[in-house]
Amino acid sequence: MAQSNKPDLLIIEDDKGLQKQLKWSFDQYNVILAEDRDSALVELRRFQPQVITLDLGLPPDPANASVGLELLEEILSLSPTSKVIVVTGNDQREIAMQAVNAGAYDYYQKPIQPEELTLIIKRAFELAKLEDENRRHFQQQKESFHGIIATSPEMMGVCQKIEKVAPTDVSVLLLGDSGTGKELLARAIHDISPRRSKNMVAINCAAIPDNLLESELFGYEAGAFTGANKTTMGKIEYANGGTLFLDEIGDMPMALQAKLLRFLQERVVERVGGRESIPVDVRIIAATHHTLEDLVNEGKFREDLFYRLSEVVLNIPALSKRNGDVVLIARSLLEKFNRQYSRNIRGFSKDAVQAMEAYSWPGNVRELENKIKSAVVMSDSNQITAKDLQIDEAQLREMPLNLRQVREAAETRAIQRAIVLSDGNISQAAKLLGLTRPTLYSLMDKYSISS
Ligand SMILES: Nc1ncnc2c1ncn2[C@@H]1O[C@H](COP(=O)(O)OP(=O)(O)OP(=O)(O)O)[C@@H](O)[C@H]1O
Ligand SMILES: [Mg+2]
Fold first, then answer.
1. Same domain, yes or no, for 415 and 426?
2. Do residue 278 and residue 345 come from a single domain?
3. pLDDT for residue 1
4. The last residue of a domain, from among 118, 141, 164
5. CATH number of the domain within which 358 lies
6. CB atoms within 10 A of CB 52
7. Pairing relation of β-strands 219-220 and 232-233?
8. Which of 53, 115, 350, 406 is the least buried, fewest Cβ under 10 Å from its Cβ?
9. For atom 15 of ligand 1, which residue has the closest CA?
10. Among 212, 200, 207, 202, which Cα is nearest to 272's?
11. Which SUPFAM superfamilies match (predicted)?
12. What is the DSSP string of 375-433?
């Protein structure tokens, strides 16, 4: 039978008579039947249906809703975007509400009137389709900006600034702790600038010994020093027409700072041992985890160079200061490492999400990357748990004591999380939070949260 273009509808129902009746009533769908927990999970994995009806009274204990409620949780953790309509006995309103609170889309009380249930199912399919479109749109538009994954207002602000400075030639100084994404941001600036077809050359000023740094940067003529067998171009020349990324600029030795400054003023390089001045056109992006002003005050960094480099300064927030980003980045890293290591881990357990949100991430995104990579490689189950992430409990952030602060922080966090979980769909997020849409909008306004 050619059923391939009908949407899949999974009906979990143990009553054979009802099964038949439902199958017959819903012939506009590709009805898949399951009669207990195990067969339901098999069909769920196989078809990933957008809409599911779930009879809460299932074997081995059909008189009790507990098997059904447990299955509901399992379904939602495996397939969080599926719309589950729970079907209950006619005096089980409380249980129905419990199911909706646990994430069911809607409920329906027996006895079943196929026309009524059809309407609910039809609406569920429409909503699922709409959400799917929103999700795609959201993913394309917001989640990833040239590889930068972010949803927090803090990082959105950084991305907007990047969009503004990229087309210009101004020097950008990126300030942020280790692992916050300085190199990724530098790459994004280059990639959306008119210089993108030319090289972006990165130099790590902290990793090259003092005596080699000059020849690295400016190049050298044959015979300039022992071992200089042939004339070699420096990194600045390689970047001609493109972007020069000076990483860990705070660690550049004083003597070289003077030479770099001269280059920035005159825009010509002289190779070591050479006499010729070679004009070079580069855009400079510098980065450091040091507070450059402090280095200037301590006399370790030239003030005039500091001003040259910092025409625009971008402060990159620590990962723990980006509301909602940890889980979002974690999910995308999970997909990446699943592909890389041919694993098929579906998601994170609740305790893993809580631990990730409470942890202080001293190593920022790089640390998150390492933890997820190791969890993906080592995990034995299809979910990553807090234990897999090896998050040290002593490092979980302390709660502030002032109640208003606690409440505001908790509200902000819950809202961010609901928006992430519903992929930017505000109606859905409001529903998760038990709020009306206008209330959610006013709270988002109060806490400057964007969707
Ligand atoms: N917002 C983000 N979304 C996705 N990946 C990110 C994000 N920020 C950083 N990363 C990833 O995290 C890792 C560390 O980022 P990057 O090397 O740019 O940081 P850094 O600030 O230069 O760190 P370091 O000080 O250690 O050199 C990289 O693999 C990068 O791709
Ligand atoms: Mg770096």
1. yes
2. no
3. 41
4. 141
5. 1.10.8.60
6. 30
7. antiparallel
8. 115
9. 181
10. 212
11. CheY-like (SSF52172), Homeodomain-like (SSF46689), P-loop containing nucleoside triphosphate hydrolases (SSF52540)
12. HHHH--SSEE-HHHHT--GGGBPPPPS-HHHHHHHHHHHHHHHHHHHTTT-HHHHHHHH
Ligand 1 mean position, distance from CA 235 (Å): 23
Alpha helices in 5-152 (DSSP H): 16-25, 37-47, 66-78, 93-101, 114-138
CATH number at residue 183: 3.40.50.300
Query: What is the whole-number distance in angstroms between the Cα of residue 126 and the centre of ligand 1?
Result: 39
Kindly state whether residues 120 and 156 are assigned to the same domain: no
pLDDT at 110: 87
Is there a single domain that holds both residue 221 and residue 350? no
Is 310 inside a domain boundary? yes
Ligand 1 atom showing the smallest separation from residue 174 Cα: 21
Pair (280, 340) in one structural domain: no
| pLDDT tens track for 359-378 | 999 999 999 999 999 999 99
Question: In this structure, what token pair is assigned to residue 149?
Answer: 């994954």
Side-chain half-sphere exposure of 203, counting CA atoms within 13 A: 28
- The per-residue pLDDT for range 134-157, each reduced to its tens digit, is 666 655 554 567 889 988 888 988
Distance CA 372, CA 388 (A): 8
Range of the domain at 427: 320-446
3-state secondary structure of 54: strand
Site residues for ligand 1, CB cut-off 6 Å = 148-150, 176, 178-184, 289, 329, 365-366, 369
Ranges of residues in the chain whose predicted pLDDT is under 50? 1-3, 142
Q: How far is the CA of 63 from the centre of ligand 2 (A)?
A: 60
Domains in the chain: how many in total?
A: 3
Give the pLDDT score at 397: 65
Dist CA 266 CA 61 (whole Å)? 83
Distances (CA, A) of 312 to 286, 309, 417: 10, 8, 32
Question: Same structural domain for residues 125 and 39?
Answer: yes
User: Looking at the domain assignment, is residue 420 inside a domain?
Assistant: yes
Atom 16, ligand 1: residue with shortest CA distance: 181
Rounded to whole angstroms, how far apart are CA atoms 277 and 380? 61
Residue 3 lies in a domain: no
221 assigned to some structural domain: yes
